[in-house]
Amino acid sequence: xxxxxxxxxxxxxxxxxxxxxxxxxxxxxxxxxxxxxxxxxxxxxxxxxxxxxxxxxxxxxxxxxxxxxxxxxxxxxxxxxxxxxxxxxxxxxxxxxxxxxxxxxxxxxxxxxxxxxxxxxxxxxxxxxxxxxxxxxxxxxxxxxxxxxxxxxxxxxxxxxxx
Length: 163
Known about the structure:
It comes from Anaerobaca lacustris. The chain is α+β, with helices and mostly antiparallel strands. The chain has seven helices and four strands, in the order ααβααβαββαα.
């Protein structure tokens, strides 16, 4: 009798989790514009010259860590990189890697992360996937230092090219 009760509870838990994921997937904000263009297609800066693009890569359904990664990244960009953001030297973009499979393939994405891409003369010159954001998401200072260093490193290379 006890086994039957536990099986019933497990099945009910499975049903509730499945319903929760289904509802989350339907209500999650889309990372794409109405034209549904691929981030890979739109990432080329074109005539805007050299720049760094910070991609917040996530799934359609976002967990606490996914939201924290995005929140802390935006906080860092607003606090320490406001000038380059306003000048267009740094761009921030959000990408749902489950919907943009070409982007996921290009950067070998298997989970939520940040990707910092440097463009020179409108062409991708280098990228850095910041997989450690997961382990640092609960430590604000460590997260900020890690992401700051990656962005500064790519900006420094642009400055070297200009000089």
